[in-house]
Every structure is written in structure tokens, then in C-alpha cells.
Specification:
Elements (H helix, E strand, L loop, with lengths): L2 H27 L3 H26 L2 H27 L5
Length: 92
């Protein structure tokens, strides 16, 4: 791996972790439930991007599979939360 790529990966991981901290602040201090759901959606997207960055850094397929699982569970979770906010129940 070239030094430029290694530095770019470290910089992107640092920026992703700062974004994750700011998103956690929005998640805990959000004025409404919709803000908290959006922060949770953004949180799983950042986690997925961090996994993909680590997959590039370590050249491992396991991180790609973990990113895929995070994306699938995040979508299902955000769908369930949106349905709960609209109707007050998840299972009909």
C-alpha cells in the first residue's frame, strides 16, 4: 500500500469518527423523534463507510460482508422505526 493511500485512509477514518461523534450528539440531544431516527440512519451509514474503509486498508472480505450486514440491518431498523412513528405499532 502506498503512503498516500495509507494517509488518506487514516484521514477518512478520523473524519468518519468525528462525524459519528457529532451524530451521537444529535441522537441524544435531538429535539424530536424524527431527528433521532435520522441520526440513527446516518449513524449506520457512517458505520458502514468505516467498515468499507477498513476493508480497503486490510484487504479483507470480512469487512465487506460486515458492511453489507450493517446496511441490511440498518434499513430494516429504520423501516421499523418509521412505521412505529407513523402508526404506533410495528407488527400489525
Amino acid at each position: 500500500m502506498s503512503p498516500l493511500l495509507a494517509n488518506a485512509i487514516l484521514l477518512s477514518l478520523f473524519i468518519f469518527s468525528v462525524a459519528m461523534i457529532l451524530t451521537l450528539l444529535r441522537l441524544f440531544r435531538g429535539p424530536s423523534a424524527q431527528d433521532r431516527v435520522l441520526a440513527l440512519d446516518y449513524l449506520y451509514i457512517i458505520a458502514m463507510l468505516m467498515m468499507l474503509t477498513l476493508a480497503i486498508r486490510y484487504s479483507s472480505d470480512t469487512y465487506f460482508e460486515a458492511a453489507l450486514l450493517i446496511a441490511l440491518f440498518g434499513f430494516v431498523g429504520s423501516f421499523a422505526l418509521a412505521k412505529f412513528l407513523l402508526r404506533g405499532e410495528v407488527i400489525e
